[in-house]
Amino acid sequence: MAKYFFVARDPSGKRREGLLEADSNAAVISMLRRQQLLPVEVKLVSDRGKLVAITEKEKTIRRGKVSLPEMALFSRQLATMLEAGIPILDSIQDLAEQTPNKYFSNVLNDIAGEIREGSSFSKALSKYPKVFSQLYVALVLSGEESGNLVEVLKDLSSELEDQLTLIRKVRQALSYPAVIIVFFVAVVSFVFLYLIPKFQEIFESFGAQLPLFTRIILNISKFSLKFLSFFLVGLILLFIFLSFFRKTFYGSRKIDAFKLKLPVFGDLFLKISLARFSRSLATLLQGGVSIVAALEIVARTTGNTILEDYIKRLREGVIGGELLGVEMKKYRIFPAMMVRMVTVGEETGRTDDMLTRVSKFFRDEVDVTLNILSSILEPILIIGLGVIVGVVVLAIYLPIFKLAATMR
């Protein structure tokens, strides 16, 4: 009898792995099924060393994440393959082989194994919440129940692509100002931490009384050098604190509330969240999900706990018999234009279409706001850099002028 390393799942979906002695792979699978375990993978192991290697490899493959572009591509490709008449099991297995992401490939192979054993596609997806969101699973479930899975997957891929486009626009708009800010900080650091101290040594060698303005700049430079290490340590500790604080319920609410109150940027963050909320809700409604269930799902996709609370209030009002537009009108966080369009959508039976238009409007607004911020931030930073350089040059040349006048 040979030794086999296995990976399986119990009835609750929990992953199990271990070592069994059997005559063949089929015998191992039979043994696992008798223990009410679903076989995911079975490998022949000849010695302990290879077992360790396989185990470590499995752990490495199972640690990872799936990016938004990978999810969008998977959804689009799966929809295309199903539309072409390829069975879902074959489609998932083919996509598992094609993806360069080993973690995602392993997840897809596990899903294929569960479908092979009789599980539905949506149920198999639900066992990987870190990869497939609740919104994704709910839409796939609605597609299975309505027999319209291909169209649902197309809608999903479109939504993911819209999210990706919005993220790319934000990054693109902020990348140039970010480069300028880094250059600004680098120049200021060089001036105050290196250039000014060098000139200070020169001035002290003359033993002359320096102008007041120059002494002030030199003292600022001394202060910066003295407390630089404390400042850096403080920044690191603040970053660590905020990282842990953000993971707490109280901390996430405080940070999200602070983000929405920021001048200019608060409005930008809100528009991004509202665009995501509108698009997700429209996609769920188009997929046949009820408004109550859709609101419960999209509340977790906004990326802001404050807006999430308001969406939960909307859901409670809808459960109580109110229309969505009427409930939205009660809260100032939802713009009047958005409320009006949702109301019209409910009156005409085109709520999903109106929400899609609202999402597009907010994405365009984010685009405009980012362009304006970029165009304003660039000259401000350049002017600021010019002012600092001018101040430093003045502080350096004032003693030189004074020494020149004394020598005459």
Descriptive labels:
single chain, mainly alpha, Ubiquitin-like (UB roll), Receptor-associated Protein, 3 domains, three-stranded antiparallel β-sheet, extended
Task: Please provide a written account of the structure.
With 408 residues, the protein is mainly alpha-helical. It folds into three domains: 2-62, Ubiquitin-like (UB roll) (Roll), CATH 3.10.20; 68-132, Type II secretion system (T2SS), domain F (Receptor-associated Protein), CATH 1.20.81.30; 149-408, Receptor-associated Protein, CATH 1.20.81.30. The chain contains 16 helices and three strands. It has helices at 25-34, 48-62, 68-83, 88-98, 102-116, 121-126, 134-146, 149-206, 212-247, 249-261, 265-286, 291-298, 305-319, 324-328, 336-348, 351-407, and strands at residues 2-9, 15-22, 38-45. A three-stranded antiparallel sheet has the order 2-1-3, with helices on both faces. A hairpin with a 5-residue loop joins strand 1 (2-9) and strand 2. The longest helix is centred in the middle third of the chain and has 58 residues, at 149-206. The chain is extended, with a radius of gyration of 30 Å. Residues 47-57 have low confidence and may be disordered.
